[in-house]
Amino acid sequence: MATTLVDYTVIKDSPFELGTSGSGPHFFDFELPASYVNTLSPILQFVVRGNLDDDYTFQVGFNDPDELQSKAALRYVCKNVESKIVSLHEVVSGSSLAPGKNRIYFRVNTGKVGFSDVVLWFQRNV
Fold first, then answer.
1. How many structural domains is the chain composed of?
2. N or C: which end of the chain has fewer CB within 10 A?
3. How many helices (H) and strands (E) does the chain have?
4. Domain with 108 in it: what CATH number?
């Protein structure tokens, strides 16, 4: 049996803001090493900066922008948020990612939302 260790990649460190007026999802490309283990579940972590006056909804998906239309996308509905800044983490399907180039999509459905510090924790073979 191969030995695995936990590793991470910083997908986007600087803040970015999205609203419903955009023409489509916003995306960032990132690389995973050849030793990435897709049978284990990685953890996506990011900071959300919402407007306290508004409810907002957004989605996050990987590699297929059409996924945002399906139940496979991560969907967040934020109502009556008490804190303007929150950190979220989500266990995602390891099979939705692959060694080499990958793409993460963010789409805001209602409201205006800021994001930053997008990090993916994953396992790889040693």
1. 1
2. N
3. 0, 9
4. 2.60.120.260
